[in-house]
## 1
Amino acid sequence: PGAAGGDRAARIDALIEREQERFRQSHPRAAAAWEEGQQHFLYGAPSHWMRRWAGGFPVYVAEAQGARIVDIDGRDYVDFCLGDTGGMCGHAPEPVTRAAVRQLQRGATTMLPTLDSLWVGAELARRFGLPYWTLTTSATDANRGAIRIARMITGRDKVLVFSGCYHGGVEEAHVEIREGRVGLRNMIHPNGVDHEAVSRVVEFNDIAALEAALAEGDIACVLTEPLMTNFGMIPVAEGFHAALRAATRRAGTLLVIDETHTISCGPGGYTALHGLEPDILVAGKAIAGGVPAGIFGVSAAVAERMWAQVPRTNPKHRQSAHLGIGGTLAGNALTVATMRAVLEEVLTPDAFGRMTACAGRLAEGAEAVIAEHALPWHVTRIGARAEIMFSPAPPTCGADVIAGRDPGLETLLHAFYMNEGVLVTPFHTMFLCCPATTEADVDRHTAVFRRFVALLRQEGL
Ligand code: PMP
């Protein structure tokens, strides 16, 4: 029996306040640092994302190692946020540190290639199956490059995305379906851009809507994750990828697969695991072990079409055509050295095996707690990621996520986690395992989650 309606919402709000007060009391140094940060940072911390933590303010990190973080208040955490995937290699992985120090001593950025780049290019082609690569400074920038290329070679301006997506600071993807039309995602500011003019948005897994949108013949590319991870995890329906590939080919639309998060499925991401055939593949975040980096790879056919417009040959005259894709620091020696360390020694097939097993154990632990209390919740697990959702069955699209959301309960759970030494990506309840995550780390989560459910029961919620 749970409290109903408004009473329930008010009680959850009161519990959030109690957890935030507990957080303030137990984090006096972070509270003081947060207050000082307001003086010189626009949103209190170097990045506005850092203010989104449910404790009310972020923990300030003293040291991060493997899957553990120690904060300036002397408290320690099991980290399943892992920098929202940027830390998927685990914190301070020794091969990356070694490669970074070695390269920093030899020059970080020269706008000239190093020999490590040859190894990296060959390994990216081997892992992901696309022959030609470009490095960028972020996944956002890789997506921007992919969109620009799609427009360049199709002569079309629209980008189709799925409702609930997130692909970084890319205007075209800041949209979701609102009352059947192109609307702005999750309170993102519209920013003076006419999104209706550059974006199309349909529900994930909806092949009929996708085909209808593509039939208009004005879409340069479909930009999508292979399964959605940014709105609560949304698994892909049987047959969806085959239909997506066939429909985009029919329409002359490029297919851009963004593996920035789903690289957690395995060494070549979801694409290699399931034999997808994107025209362009994007990744970033963890790919250089925490050194800012993104990558995109293109098919031979896309490369040929690009070279027809912007020649591959060394330009005779300095004032010659270029791609208009940014990134002065892209592919610099430091990034290439750390990317090599990640691909060669950290995100290995063996590491993915262990990460995936840990995520499986986490999902089983959470499922056991849910079953003990017969709660109408579920856990999704794909590769090294798991997600707890407050609905009985996995969503099939963004609309299902919106319908199943319980924002108060989610905030309460996240504040409780912070107080109990568990860090989870603040945007929804998604867990990521790194090569250093242990069974004991996972079991710590299960115990905390069990205490959370006990608290709800005790409060009659
Ligand atoms: N693609 C996906 C799938 C992402 O989840 C994100 C960030 N959450 C990005 C791209 C953008 O990454 P970044 O902010 O590091 O550029």
## 2
Amino acid sequence: RLLHTAIERRSAFARLSEQDLAFFQSILGNSGVITDADALVPFNQDWQKKYEGKSRVALRPRSTEQVSEVLRYCSSRRLAVVPQGGNTGLVGGSVPVFDEVVLSTAAMNKVLEFDEVSGTLVAQSGCVLAALDEHVGARGFMMPLDLGAKGSCHIGGNVSTNAGGLRLVRYGSLHGSVLGLEVVLPEPLLPPPPSRGGGGGSSSGSSNGATASAAATAGSTADGRVLDLLRTLRKDNTGYDLKQLFIGAEGTLGVVTAVAIQCAPRPASVQLALLACPTFAAACTTLRAARRMLGEVLSAVEFLDSACSDLATAYLDGVRNPLLPQDAAAAVAGLGEAGDTGGGAAVVARGRGGGEEGLEGGGVGDDRQFYMVVETHGSDADHDTQKMERFLEHVMAEGCVTDGTLAASEAQAKTIWRLREGIAEALARRGAVYKYDVSLPTAVMYDLVEVLRQRLGAAGFGPEGGVQVRREGGVQVRREGGVQVRREGGVQVRREEGVQVVGYGHIGDGNLHLNISAPRYDDDLLHQIEPYVYEFVRQHNGSISAEHGIGLMKAGALPYSKGPVAIELMRRIKETVDPYGILNPYKVLPQR
Ligand code: FAD
Ligand code: 2HG
Ligand code: ZN
């Protein structure tokens, strides 16, 4: 169990030299080689600012051929490399641990092909997900995945993490929607073809349903390390499905340079409801009803606990929960601004009744604990509306939903999605966050949040902690029940500042996002959480990574979800493809 073991830099890796930089400049030009210390900060630091490397160079190739040249050189020099897309990953996989060369796909952002009959898209791996969605949206299609990070994450990063997101329940995993990949391997598997520079490119020729590879498009020659699996075929049973190996490989086996993906028709009718449920069991009953009654049009079923709603409304400008009265949301935002110097969330009074646009029959009481976002994608508004109305009537009659609102416009739908999608950002603003992204049997999913809340409270962390009064910076501070009260500038300021355990996620996929928000990172707190969380997950036959991947954060914990034979096979695949281990070292596989 290497959960807390410090990692040492592998001595087999070379250190970057001036000659290395000169070589990179010779193939990428000055603009493709970043060495300025300030400019390197965002490449070295992850989205959460939790993991930080010390790379001295970030490379921005524009073509498959350039990626291939870079890997050929790095392999011969034994320079370690970390592939980086939009750098929105949440497990420390996308940034260097030490001084690895950062290979960013940001300049590989061209759409290569879109087939308007079949809806197949071929794009370079550095295309931003939202930009691709806009591109195919203008042609009547949508990307088969959507996530809060869509404005920054790259399709290559999505594939490499096997990102799940908000609509997996309807459009499935990338293991199904990715039709083809082009990947540059760290070592050649074949000798280079005899003539270089002839523009031939890929090893597999274009045939019916196949597409031009990005290498060929860029006029490159494959040098025996470009694995061209860039087909757009829906069906292709020709031996092992090698592309699946790279979906979710987190940059440890190759650099994905292009992706062929099946897009879905953009729905003509979209409905979105935000519902309040008194208990998690009621949320599960609502989920079952949604599956049964919304059937083929159901496109998302998400949940958040009320603590998540409070955080999002308190920390993000303009975010509100339409089921809370306006004044409550405004009061939260106001308190946050007035009392906050970057510390804790405002305390929200819940259950004050009267959500705007509340459904008839929906009473708001003190029992509001969970919110659900239920969305449908269909082709006939009348049919879909009727289905949604019947579903809402049913769940309210059953008492598993006590209040709800149906978005009446795109703007209202955005408000609801912003509440859900903003949670990660709100947590990041509150302070330190320990994130766990687990798959569990849906019915017991929230038990993990509750037992951890109790466990941390009993250990003196969190709102359940005792009463403390002490002087800090000459000011008397009183802490009780996780609320800090102090006087600042003659004004009494109350701030929820303790450890908060919150849960939300993709309930339709059995995927819980357990987040422990704390004023600061603290090893004692971490030891209360790990390995407890991983043990809980193992006991329930769950997965320690539902969608975010393993990265650096969970490499030591992999044995909680994978047996020794599976891990050994993973190691052998890694050793075959990357014998010098230069690609994204220290990530995914546990140290021996
Ligand atoms: P990066 O973060 O740059 O990289 C992620 C991993 O992939 C790293 O290991 C990296 O080395 C590797 N990699 C990147 N590009 C390549 C490539 N071209 N070839 C080989 N390896 C590569 N995830 C979900 O699954 N569902 C969600 O709903 C979701 N929501 C999110 C919301 C927010 C606000 C944020 C910040 C993150 C969210 N994530 C979610 C995390 C998710 O993993 C990423 O957002 C996304 O899939 C990563 O893409 P990226 O381009 O940012 O990759
Ligand atoms: C989401 O679903 C992301 O919003 C982020 O996967 C999850 O913050 C998290 O734990
Ligand atoms: Zn998620």
## 3
Amino acid sequence: TLDSTTSLRIAVQKSGRLTDKTLNLLEGIGLHFDDYKRSLLVKCLNFDVELLLIRDDDIPEYVEDGVCDLGFVGANTVAEDEADVTILRGLGYGVCRLAIAIPKNGSAQNVEDLDGKKIATSYPVLTRKFFEDKGLNVDIITLSGSVEIAPRLEIADGISDLVSTGGTLKANGLVEIEKIFDSETQLIQTNKPLSEGKQKMIRKILQRIEGHKKASQ
Ligand code: ATP
Ligand code: ZN
């Protein structure tokens, strides 16, 4: 049953690259919160909305399960999770790409040279798909972080990792050879049924984001 008395719950990354931009966007469209760094669940001061602050990796699942109605999260995370959610819109921040990189002075020159080799990544689903589509067989080594160090440790021959400026790759003697996936922050919505009140609030939020984007262009 639909519970019209509960607040629209929005998942936001607790602490990371998307946090400040997302909270600024919410403030920018007139949703006010106080003390959001202190607690996990934060009530909006002027609308029937609350924020759940969690790790970005957990956001697609929380939205898929309907624990949260909306979420602000990277397209990379949504795609990797293969989450059953509705993407409402891209937001133009948190822009990055998932790309293949290899040691600058190594034996491999292109992705074909990685056939039969080891690739370290935090994105095994998207990475496996990329190589399969090319008919290449690679051994995927899943690491939760610091993927860029894997070639130097001889754990892997190449990596598939998020890149924005390329500074991290360069600092680790790696060169980008191919892009797998373009990403930006997305606003996602649960596919679970929502009360009229929540649907109305979501329409309001979308309209305001639209207006906010236009004003800031
Ligand atoms: P959490 O503790 O929430 O799991 P995290 O360390 O996994 O955080 P961040 O590094 O804060 O995540 O990145 C969050 C998102 O920011 C990424 O999933 C991606 O969508 C986006 N992003 C933009 N540029 C980059 C980049 N250069 N490297 C990594 N992520 C980036
Ligand atoms: Zn994460």
